[in-house]
Design goal:
Shape: globular
Bound molecules: phosphoenolpyruvate
Distance between the termini: 17 Å
CATH topology: TIM Barrel
Radius of gyration: 17 Å
Number of helices: 11
Strand content: 15-25%
Number of domains: 1
Length: about 250
């Protein structure tokens, strides 16, 4: 019922020529993929050339962030309008690196979600607890607060295209993956929360991705869990062979 989605977050990596090369390798390696969605998020400066390369392939594009205004005096920012113009269908919002390094709040993230949806982009909303929060048994409270904050004042109809990415902060870029049981527990909780806050239908159809050191060696078992609908992949998405294997999970 939920089409699996594998998304690669390239972060601040790959020059334009390197991005083009990686995109070309992915197009070749992912020929024929049709039962799952594939999304890559290159740096902004490479979006338009990568868009040309992935045209007519199963690969879709995401921005790594956006500002909640369409255009105007917002030096250094990028908006849903311009991401669409560059060829994006998706946008990553609320990544833990931005929450931590740039002090993004749930309220600011909510504005971005609203504007992304209004601008025709599908948001990939990242949520997740730190190690300290997990160890203090605050995980469920943190996830609840992040979901409630980011989706405040939104209706079930409005969030029909939303994707949630559960990314425990302690598993991002650390090589430490959540166990299948830990990931499934968090995903089931998020799904239940969506049912309570919106509708059972939304909970059933919203894709919840796992992110945090996903690799070719652990993707199959993660994807076997009932509530894990895909992966948001950082480090391993920078290598064509690894990312292709992850997309082709069993
Ligand atoms: C991420 O940054 O979203 C991520 C999951 O990174 P990594 O796969 O490197 O842990």
């Amino acid at each position: 019922m939920r089409t699996p989605l594998i998304a690669g977050n390239w972060k601040l990596n790959k020059t334009i020529s390197e991005a083009n090369k990686l995109a070309t390798q992915l197009v070749t390696g992912l020929t024929g993929v049709s039962d799952r969605e594939v999304v890559i998020a290159p740096i902004f400066t490479a979006l338009s050339s990568v868009a040309d390369i992935v045209k007519n392939s199963p690969i879709q594009l995401a921005g790594q962030n956006c500002y909640p205004e369409e255009s105007g005096a917002f030096t250094g920012e990028i908006s849903p309008l311009f991401l669409r113009d560059a060829g994006c269908q998706y946008v990553i919002i609320g990544h833990s690196e931005r929450r931590q390094l740039l002090a993004e709040t749930d309220a600011f993230i909510q504005q971005k979600i609203v504007k992304s949806l209004a601008g025709g982009l599908k948001p990939i909303l990242c949520i997740g607890e730190t190690l300290e929060q997990r160890e203090n048994n605050q995980m469920f409270d943190v996830l609840t607060q992040q979901i409630k904050g980011a989706l405040k004042n939104l209706t079930a109809e409005r969030i029909a295209t939303l994707v949630v990415a559960y990314e425990p902060v302690w598993a991002i870029g650390t090589g430490k993956t959540a166990s299948n049981e830990q990931a499934q527990e968090a995903h089931a909780f998020i799904r239940k929360l969506l049912a309570e806050l919106f509708t059972p239908d939304i909970a059933e159809t919203t894709r919840i991705l796992y992110g945090g050191s996903v690799k070719p060696g652990n993707v199959d078992e993660l994807m076997a869990e009932k509530d894990i609908d895909g992966a948001l992949v950082g480090g391993a998405s920078l290598n064509a062979e690894d990312f292709i294997r992850i997309v082709r999970f069993n």
